[in-house]
Amino acid sequence: RDTLGRPHFVVVHIVDITAQKKALEDRDALFALSPDLLSICNPDGYLVQVNPAWRELLGWDEAELMARPFMEFIHPDDVARTIEQASALAGGGSVLGFRNRHRHADGSWRWIEWSTRVDSDGRMFCMGRDVSEQRRMSEQLHYRATHDFLTGLPNRYEFMGRLQHAIDALGREPRSLVLLFIDLDGFKAVNDLCGHEVGDAVLTSFGQRLRAAVRRTDLVARPAGDEFVVLLDHLGDARKDADHVAGKILRAASEPYPELAGRTEPGASIGMAFHLPGDSADRLLSRAGAGMYV
After folding, report:
1. Which of 15, 61, 201, 209 has a beta carbon 3.0–4.6 Å from 252's, enabling a disulfide?
2. Which is more confident, 68 or 12?
3. How far apart are CA 41 and CA 99, in angstroms?
4. In which order are the strands placed within the sheet that holds 124-130?
5. Helix 238-254 and helix 196-213: axis angle, to 10°?
């Protein structure tokens, strides 16, 4: 500086940030164009940045999303495990394929699959994809694989798994377990005299009668053909209660079927087996089937 304090010269440091600015513009462009849900969440649990896909997929405006904690948009049944997953990532880490239900602006719920990374400062970077249709298709395929297409009852595969599960539970909670094996007597005559379409209607009707004759907690299934099974669990007086249910089933089976118009009337035979120590699902089913001929 001179004697008056004025600077003799000025040092200017110029940095070209064109590349950095271009990189930020490119990032923002990709952020905006992505069909997936992209977001950044702060350590307090609020979204601080979201891309347009949020409005397109879930119907929310940016301001609405940022006004409330992110967890308020999560299905109540999924909140606990979502918090657990977020806590596991605290301080850094990532997770792929985590799924929960997110509220749509119209009040419905959508299944979202998340890929998430948490920085050491607590910020959460999230990418979500709507998998509602994929999940619906998966559940539909599972249902078809485990249920009888005609009656909607569990099929043999599903029933045997549930039966074995009930048997395994006896080790933790001893109780009576009774299996009823029901065969529609005279069903061949139904098909021969009235045709298979009417036969299908009779099977469907009998399945509905079975469900009406037992408690909602009892398991009704159709393993094959004109064979049905009922698993009775958590009975009071096992013998008395099982006999009562069997009587209701026989009465239901003997009621006329409008589809047959009196041309023939099938009945039913019931075999009953009480679970014995050491019985497997196959063994109990076999004994119940043999019980029809005792």
Report:
1. 209
2. 68
3. 17
4. 47-50, 37-41, 124-130, 109-118, 93-103
5. 150
